[in-house]
TrEMBL record:
This is Isoprenyl transferase. SUPFAM superfamilies: Undecaprenyl diphosphate synthase. HAMAP family: ISPT (MF_01139). Pfam families: Prenyltransf. The lineage of its organism: Bacteria, Pseudomonadati, Thermodesulfobacteriota, Desulfuromonadia, Geobacterales. One of its GO terms (biological process) is polyprenol biosynthetic process. It comes from the Bacteria. It comes from Oryzomonas rubra. It is an enzyme of class 2 (transferase). The keyword Transmembrane helix does not apply.
Length: 251
């Protein structure tokens, strides 16, 4: 496995877990079998991320657009989600992991919501990694809903229009309180963001792999993290500024 420098891991890692359906179809299996195998990859990634000391892990599990998939697939995904949360909560407690959810919770079936509610409550005192599940999540929806909540506070006189800053606005998003992701991994070869964390990904390092999510292994995970460690995040500055040495021009 790739050697990793403990001090240079992403504080917040976000993952677009993609390719479950194609993984299954390639094997003449039903798409849901791919989702089931994908849940095994989630267990591995959660365990590894927590072992490595990553503080925040955010997984895109179901998008607002995914509601338009065949009803059978949506139903099976919701059932799988509920089963996963139920099964994994004890392990989350042992590993000191706290559950968090972003997205439109009210769209989810009542039983799924109740299961999530229990898991969030049960793990709320945990102080280790924060595992955020993006469920019925869409970045544009999140931003417009944040704008609407903010507009209400302005109308109520709690905030003046001139007081609106990027930091203040960030606090109105579902991710308020979470740092922006440092690193985003997307599996399955698609090179797009698919409406995930649009605001928060402004300066995130992106990593794409052809591997389908059910085939994503510990080795690949470490390879992705090693790739992150080799990058220089400049945030608009020059390389010399970051290395704290004058360039030839301003020396
Ligand atoms: C990702 O796998 C899981 C969800 C979106 C719920 P997909 O189901 O999108 O798999 P592909 O992209 O069709 O292969
Ligand atoms: C993004 O994957 C959503 C999740 C991983 C949950 P999709 O498979 O839905 O995205 P598109 O349709 O390929 O953009
Ligand atoms: Mg997909």
């Amino acid at each position: 496995m790739e050697p990793l420098e403990p001090g240079k891991l992403p504080t917040h890692l976000a993952i677009i877990m993609d390719g479950n359906g194609r993984w299954a179809q390639q094997r003449m299996l039903k798409r849901i079998v791919g989702h089931q195998r994908g849940a095994e990859t989630i267990k591995m990634v959660v365990e590894q991320a927590s072992l490595l000391g990553i503080k925040y892990l955010t997984l895109f599990a179901f998008s607002s657009e995914n509601w338009s998939r065949p009803a059978m697939e949506v139903k099976a995904l919701m059932a799988l989600l509920k089963k996963y949360i139920r099964q994994e909560t004890a392990r989350m407690m042992r590993k000191n992991i706290r559950y968090n959810v972003i997205g439109n919770r009210s769209d989810l079936p009542d039983d799924v919501n109740a299961t999530l509610e229990d898991a969030i409550r049960e793990t709320s005192g945990n102080t280790g990694m924060v595992l955020t599940l993006a469920l019925s999540y869409g970045g544009r929806q999140e931003i417009s809903m944040a704008a609407s909540r903010l507009a209400r506070d302005v109308a109520a006189g709690k905030i003046k229009p001139d007081d609106i800053t990027m930091e203040l606005f960030s606090g109105y998003l579902d991710t308020g309180g979470l740092p922006d992701p440092d690193f985003l991994i997307r599996t399955s070869g698609e090179m797009r963001i698919s409406n995930f964390l649009l605001w928060q990904l402004a300066y995130t390092e992106l990593y794409f792999t052809e591997t389908y999510w059910p085939d994503f292994t510990i080795n690949e995970f470490h390879k992705a993290l090693a790739d992150f460690q080799s990058r220089e995040r400049r945030f608009g500055k020059t390389s010399d500024q970051l290395l704290n040495r004058g360039s030839l021009l301003n020396a």
